[in-house]
Amino acid sequence: MRLSLSDFPGQDSDFLSKGICDFDRMDRKKNKEIKIKKKGKRKEGDFSQLFASHVFHESEMKKRLPDRVFKQVQKARETGDALEPAVAQVVADAMKDWALEHGATHFTHWFQPMTGFTAEKHDSFVVPVGDGRAITRFSYKELIKGEPDASSFPSGGLRATFEARGYTAWDMSSPAFLKEDEGGVTLCIPTAFCSYTGEALDKKTPLLRSMDAISREAVRLLHILGKKEVSKVIATVGPEQEYFLIREEHYQQRQDLVFTGRTLFGCRPPKGQEMEDHYFASIKEPIAAFMRELDEELWKVGVSARTRHNEVAPSQHELAPMFNSANIACDHNQIVMETMKKIAARHGLVCLLHEKPFAYVNGSGKHNNWSLQTDTGENLLEPGHTPEKNITFLIFLAAVIRAVDEHADLMRIAAATPGNDHRLGANEAPPAIISIYLGDQLTSIMAELAGEQGEKGLHREDLLRIGTSSLSPLPLDSSDRNRTSPFAFTGNKFEFRMVPSTASIAAANFTLNTIVADSLARLCDELEQSDDPLKESMKLAGQIYKQHSRVVFNGNNYSSEWVQEAQRRGLPNISNTVDAAEAIVSEKTVSMYEKHKVFSRTELESRYEIVLDGYINTIRIEARSMLDIATRFIVPSVIEYRAFLADTIRSLREAGADATVEVANLAELSGHLLEFDVRLKRLQESIHAAEKKEENGSRALARAFRDEVFAAMNALRETADTLESQVAREFWPLPSYGEILYHIV
Ligand code: ADP
Ligand code: MG
């Protein structure tokens, strides 16, 4: 359906023919009608109007584009071919008209540079032409390509060798949407970001490439298995996002939170999470109000926020959307993080996404649920009622097991941020050792295929007896041991549980997609030689399991026995980001990524630099923030409190009263202040010494920050926390953990 003039109250015919729009005369009534009421009781049926009301989705496009154009867009989306300029212009016009109807004044290419955040540069639709009149213009060129000045985004050296220009290219697989806030309404066009010569400078490009790779290889395998009707396989992802909400006034009083996203000081609160009374607890009203507004904002832009609940730590919560294609899920997760921060501010709260904002209580992560779905609607990781006979499922399962075992180091770096180094292996999140939870039943089936006994020696008869009538034959997701696994099979998908809460989920998914694509490709190479690929598939699945069963572990991943056992099995245990980064540039990685056209060697080398730079900068900023807070806040406060104690002692003595306790307190405090001063100087020196390593390259610099600076930071914190426990509240310069976590003013 094309628009008619009646859709634009107050506009004359120039508006439709030439895009001339008189904003002064424009009747805003229409826009007001379209906007859904923010507050008040929602009427029945409102939800369906609200959901995706700010998205230029497929049905909106179908409604607005001539049939022929719509079909061309669909085809281009399938093939990845460029649209003819004339066709692209029709799409651009329709998109602009739709955006204007919703009150948009600007458009932006919305992209995901290597900062981990999204970036946008707004351009106005409006071009004044005098007489108080203005043209609204949006050319197809502006839709399909942008040229942000990209020289200030991390490029890991790519910038030095290539043109400083960056290009953004329209990603037709993720729909445009409207962002509405105090800044007005902006049309956001999801784009990929690359250099002049096509090197990826963002998170989306490799994700899209990896989705092509896994589709290509999965379709190839399905065709061998006789499923010729499948022409595309989509990686599906549902990311669960954890976060903290604290009061804004507490945040503003903590420079450590402002500068680094985590608290660098803070002694253990009287109450942490030991009572386990926060997890799934009823949601307090102010938080519920935040969640409600968050859900509504997300629904508008098509994010299907579905589950919300309190998490383990006090003040910690979680949001989970319905799964989507990996690309859209990744875009949506960026929107979720951004919207959480925005809505929190409206409620006098601050949303903390850091992996470890507080010591002593759990940090935050993301559970990245991942599966593969055919364009005919089949979930390839759905075992069905008789998994032991489901060849497609078993061969795909085997491919995943091999991929994860062979590329555990890549899975590890996909989950690495300096913040996550605090969590992994600290008995609150999976350890740094990558293993797979399959559950007893699948383990037993795979072991049988491999001609060996399962880990627990469980026989199928036992399982059938336990299972078929009342229980589904799937592994039970609720068991404790499952929750400790970094990569758990949860019925019809894998849940990658190590993903950092701050990070884009792109890395987790381009890694999974590519390593599994590679494993599938090798299976295809073998099966293509076989006369009986179905039979051969079962055999190969068994062989693969036999070779890679070391990566399967159904026990408690938090136990120290597992660390020993994993070492015996030869599984890597990489404790920190700096060491994990090495996997990015290993020959094995480079050849795999190049083979599947996901990354070139140059791109990988640049990403290695970006990870190390990110690590160095994070620790450097944390160390500097510590020095600043210690010198300008903590030391003066302790000195003041000491003077107060000394005054008190003097007065007591003058009055002939007993001052034994005060004297003892003063002596103890003085001792710790002295220790604090020594440790402060040590931290200063360690930063100075580390910086000197720069001439030996970023690896040496990162290691120095990890081994010297980080250790000195921990020592300083230890003394600060002791001091905090000894100084009267009114003298201590920072809100305590107890106050922050329990929102005590
Ligand atoms: P759990 O309770 O085990 O965490 P849920 O059913 O609540 O599992 O799902 C968690 C997340 O997994 C949700 O985001 C959900 O949409 C997603 N999910 C479900 N099925 C799939 C699938 N086939 N592929 C990817 N994600 C999925
Ligand atoms: Mg989960």
What would the keywords be for this entry?
745 residues, alpha+beta, Creatine Kinase, Chain A, domain 2, Four Helix Bundle (Hemerythrin (Met), subunit A), 9-stranded mixed beta sheet, 6-stranded mixed beta sheet, disordered N terminus, binds adenosine-5'-diphosphate, binds magnesium ion
Distinct helical segment count = 27
Question: What ligand molecules are bound, each kind once?
Answer: adenosine-5'-diphosphate, magnesium ion
Task: Let me know the CATH homologous superfamily of the largest domain.
Answer: Glutamine synthetase/guanido kinase, catalytic domain
* Largest β sheet strand count, sense and barrel closure: 9 strands, mixed
Separation, N- and C-terminal Cα atoms: 56 Å
CATH class of the largest domain: Alpha Beta
> Unreliable runs, pLDDT <50, ≥5 residues?
1-40, 454-472, 475-481
Q: Specify the structural class.
A: alpha+beta
* CATH topology grouping of the largest domain: Creatine Kinase, Chain A, domain 2
Report mean pLDDT, rounded to a whole number. 88
- Tell me roughly what share of residues is in helical segments: 40-55%
Strand content: 5-15%
Give the beta-strand count: 18
Q: So, CATH architecture of the largest domain?
A: 2-Layer Sandwich
Rg is 29 Å
Shape: globular
Number of domains: 3
